[in-house]
Amino acid sequence: MLCLSSIDWADNWQVHQQLATTLSAQGDRVLFVENTGVRPPTWADVPRIRRRLANWARSPRGQSTGGDRLTVYAPLVLPWPYSRLATGLNRHLLEARVRRWRRRDPTRDLVLWTFLPTPLTGALIRALRPRLTVYHCVDDLGSTSPAARRITTSEIALLRTADLVFVTSEGLRARAMRYRTQVALLPSAVDIEMFERARDDPAAVPPDLRSLPRPVVGFIGEVKRWVDQELLRTAAQRLPGVSFVLLGPVRTDIARLGGAANVHVLGARPHAQIPAYLRGFDVALIPYVVSPYTNHVHPAKLHEYLAIGLAVVSTPLPEIARLNAEHGELVTVAAGTEAFCAAIQEALDGTDAVVVARRVAVARANSWTVRFAVISNLLEAALAAKGEARGGAGA
How far is it, in rounded angstroms, from Cα 107 to Cα 273? Predict the structure, then answer.
């Protein structure tokens, strides 16, 4: 499997890394190609460019291994994703790298699994001619910035031609179905065993979190511009006895949080440590600004929160409303500062054990084991259909 990722391997753990590790553990060889970009770089991208160059310098030709069957590749590409010249040169470089990787098993079928619908992806599909092409749409990438809107044309082309399309939210599914009839809704899931071990172990809480004044109200994930800093700052001021924790890499200016002494930005932690940190939360937050982008988001941390049994307070997002419609009011939705603070305070007052059990049950039903069983069935059906079509053509 060739995985064209829309994030880097060291970024916050999401379906991209989970997919690669799961399939490689099942016996597939996986080449995970880190993000090649959806827009030209800006000054804000300098730290990411430095990390890419450092990865390249540390590893032979930007390549590192995550096991016998998993290779992570940090490509150096021309950073103009909509330039024909840059796309052609980048396609040549990546195609050569993929063909070298395939020499170990030249007779095995290639599945190209992309999270990135750029012109470069289309060029690689045409050059490599994979047995199966999967487009896994986890974000409305065109709404992330004005410069990224140009991705729409190549994304529509991929939606029309991919053998399988997976999406993580109902909003993304509705958008994808403008261009095809079959789209599988597969929201982000949770490694349930890992989180349940932490839930059953009160001693698992890391020292830096255990040392903070309780109660602790927290958020895990990348701190980007769609995290509502003004909402968090005001909530922290109105609830001075509560420790607000942000756990994850910071990808935006967080100066607006600087005036709140009870806001603690702990930074990134390895994915394996996240369950232990969540075990130290009293309430979990999804404090996103409501926007065209977040209206298409299924928060990757949602089922991780529920797996610990945590009460969750969220701003009004369509995917949270869909979850509540399916399973009852599992997540408290609060619009505006007053309602958000009141919801946090109510959640801190305690939760019935029956409600906690319901949260955990929903998380179990959305484990990666369950999710990948569905994915496996869809892949097998698509490959079988391809085989029948090829056999019929040759008859």
Answer: 39
